[in-house]
Design a protein that fits this description.
This protein is an alpha+beta fold. It folds into 3 domains: 5-131, Immunoglobulins (Immunoglobulin-like); 140-178 and 195-316, Immunoglobulin-like; 335-398 and 469-662, Phosphatidylinositol (PI) phosphodiesterase (TIM Barrel, Alpha-Beta Barrel). The chain is 17% helix and 30% strand. It contains 13 helices and 41 strands. Strand 12 and strand 13 (126-127) form a beta hairpin. It is globular. Keywords: Hydrolase. Belongs to the glycerophosphoryl diester phosphodiesterase family. One of its GO terms (molecular function) is starch binding.
Length: 689
């Protein structure tokens, strides 16, 4: 009978909550074959602080296996007596290469990895730990944002004070009392409730008695990111909250729940270390998954003394995730992976450039333009994706078009070359079906304010010569994924409208965010294959949402920053590059797409990005100058530039990935020729990035 091996897993985790547990997931069936919901639980050791251990049986036929550690907690929806606790992924190891065990090297007398102690998140001299994504249909992540002029007091005794704010979740079905330092641990379920408000309150001189509660809550602890301070990383709240000053501070609170309909929040106000007021946000206050709510602030006398404005967002599990098991696989993740290169990447803006506003031959955002940029050596090409009325993806930049309507003679109508009168009417792409986009005649939106004699073609409708799939406007994302050169990376900018600083909105009545993002992610999952993809968006909540719905593809935050060229956004996260960098770091995004205009005046956002290891892309019309490109490369060491007319007036070259693949294959061929152990050479080559 073949010998089986006993594989030991022992890991120390420096930062772990009392109610969290460590699991291991990996390539073996007993380790869940990379499915975190089937991961193997470790047992906490009593005699070693924050150390967990497990032993599993490995078949003799296995020569090596890979694995990762993860931190989990259990939440209970308490729907009925039969409801089961739900495992929620708190943190996990996200280095590109998982841990590897070579059984032939590490086994001693049938025991593998004995006396080895791993450190959670650290492997091969590097450390990287990331927040978990949403694993379950019942799970939601709730974000509260308190910023701007959020506080208003009409009681004079409460005005003109500095307050510290703390947000605590609770279940409206129970009189819950809780904290996050309780020491009771029962099996795998941590109990972290303790007296918070009620301990300091009484009725008729008697303490309020807490009613029986479920063993596990339906919510996690609430952590905090402060975007306006030096450390924006999400972490535990202070016992007496964090300072909030109107128009100065920007607080983001985050909670997970498996019973959204029963989740409420208590906002505690502290002044001089003492709690002085409360406010409540109830489930009924949050209408929809994205919005704002105004809640009364109640003083010590139980009378209202003011109100607080809170923005909220609810992120749900991807609708397509259950149909695509690979979404949850922990085998590989590129969410925070980026290989630093000596060569700055060149990214083709809408392919070869903005054809409706600049004199560029190739129509922007078409398969032909994207492929032409790839042919000219672009490492990535940038494209814009939005949805039609019938929820089809289309690659197009602007939210609106001008539709041409033929009509009777009128002073406002414009005669065509054939003498026919026509008028132009603005219409949003979201209000048109895909069939209508293919059928009607459109002009670019800039025609509304531009000269009819513009040297740039503003006709969006394809000409008689543009009849094939490669040249026509409005290709679907699937068409792009199928037909654009697979060697070029794709920077997919997701177009989602926002409020501008003047109070206007880019496109009113848009799609619900979760549904919108899910449709795009589903199309990418189905057609992307092994493509290199980076998502980007100006809407910061969309960026957050993508990271909570999947972990395979990275996200970079697009920011306008301080500008005199564009109407700035109302959201300060998109209006200030320093806060944008803090936001990207706090939400564990890959990086930031900075606007060249602000960086040429103030390079401090680059310093913040470097501090947190963020990837730095730059976009903007300034990059049409070769001197400016050189400045960003040599003085700011940015990772990539997004610009028009890529490869023009230059010697044709191959993109960096083609060159690297060629060098890798040449090295492998030489090692095969010289090595006595071809199998070992192949193993070594598989880790070359």
């Amino acid at each position: 009978m073949d010998q089986e091996y006993k594989a030991h897993f022992k890991v120390h985790c420096a930062e772990i909550k009392e109610w969290e547990r460590i699991h291991v997931v990996g390539s073996l069936p007993v380790l869940g074959e990379w499915n975190p919901r089937k991961s193997f639980p470790l047992i906490k050791l009593d005699n070693e602080e924050n150390t967990f251990h497990a032993i599993v049986t490995v078949p003799s036929a296995v020569k090596e296996f890979q694995f990762r550690y993860l931190r989990v907690m259990y939440l209970d929806p308490s729907e009925n007596s039969l409801s089961e606790p739900v495992m929620v992924l708190s943190k996990w190891e996200t280095l590109y290469n998982p841990r590897t065990c070579l059984i032939g090297v590490e086994s001693r007398n049938g025991v593998v990895r004995n006396n080895m102690i791993d450190e959670f998140g650290s492997y091969g001299g590097r450390t990287q730990i990331s927040d978990g994504w949403i694993l379950n249909e019942k799970e939601n992540v709730v974000y509260f944002r308190i910023h701007g002029e959020a506080l208003k007091f009409f009681a004079k005794s409460y005005a003109n004070r500095e307050y510290r704010l703390k947000v605590e979740p609770f279940d409206v079905r129970y009189s819950e009392m809780f904290s996050y330092t309780h020491k009771e641990i029962n099996d795998r379920r941590g109990i972290w409730r303790h007296s918070s408000v009620y301990a300091s309150m009484s009725i008729d001189g008697e303490d309020v008695v807490n009613l029986p509660t479920p063993e596990l809550p339906c919510f996690s602890n609430t952590d905090l990111s402060v975007l306006t301070r030096e450390d924006p990383i999400f972490g535990d709240q202070y016992f007496n909250g964090s300072v909030f000053r109107n128009d100065q501070d920007y607080l983001v609170f985050r909670t997970r729940t498996v019973s959204l309909q029963n989740l409420a929040f208590r906002i505690e106000f502290y002044h001089k270390e003492k709690r002085c007021a409360l406010s409540y946000v109830l489930p009924s206050s949050m209408s929809g998954t994205h919005g704002a709510t105004v809640s009364p602030v109640i003083g010590l006398s139980s009378a209202p003394v003011g109100h607080i404005n809170v923005n909220y967002m609810i992120v749900k599990r991807s609708q397509y995730a259950e149909k695509n098991p690979e979404v949850d696989s922990m085998r590989e993740t590129f969410g925070r992976y980026w290989r630093k290169r000596n060569r700055m990447l060149q990214i083709g803006h809408r392919g070869m450039g903005s054809s409706y506003t600049k004199n560029i031959d190739q129509r922007e955002n078409t398969i032909f333009s994207l492929n032409e940029a790839a042919r000219r050596g672009a490492d990535y090409v940038e494209l814009d994706v939005q949805l039609t009325k019938d929820l089809k993806t289309v690659v197009y930049h602007d939210f609106h078009l001008l539709v041409t309507v033929a009509g009777r003679d009128s002073p406002s109508n414009t005669p065509t070359a054939g003498g026919e009168n026509k008028s132009l009417h603005e219409i949003a792409i979201k209000d048109l079906t895909l069939a209508q986009l293919k059928l009607l005649h459109f002009e670019h939106i800039s025609r509304a304010n531009g000269s009819p004699d513009s040297p740039v073609s503003l006709s969006v409708t394809p000409s008689k010569n543009e009849t094939d799939e490669l040249h026509v406007p409005f290709p679907s994302l699937a068409q792009v994924l199928r037909n654009v050169d697979e060697n070029v990376g794709l920077n997919i900018e997701i177009k989602y409208p926002m409020y501008m600083k003047d109070g206007s909105h880019e496109c009113e009545g848009y799609f619900e965010q979760n549904k919108f993002v899910d449709i795009i992610l589903a199309e990418v999952a189905e057609h992307a294959g092994n493509r290199r993809i980076v998502f980007s968006c100006f809407e910061p909540d969309i960026c957050t949402m993508i990271t909570k719905k999947q972990h395979k593809y990275p996200v970079s935050f697009l920011v306008v920053g301080a500008t005199n060229r564009y109407m700035p956004f109302q959201d300060i996260r998109s209006d200030c590059s320093k806060i944008a960098a803090n936001f990207a770091a706090g939400c564990e995004l890959l990086g930031v797409n900075f606007h060249s205009e602000e960086l040429l005046i103030d390079r401090n956002p680059i310093t913040i990005a470097d501090k947190y290891g963020l990837v730095k892309f730059v976009w903007g019309d300034d990059l049409n100058s070769k001197e400016v490109q050189k400045h960003f490369k040599e003085e700011m060491n940015v990772d990539g530039l997004i610009f028009d007319r890529i490869g023009e007036d230059e010697v044709m070259k191959q993109n960096v990935f083609v060159v690297e693949n060629h060098n890798r294959n040449s090295l492998f061929a030489r090692s095969q020729h010289n090595s006595r152990s071809p199998s070992m050479s192949r193993r070594c080559m598989s880790t070359v990035e």
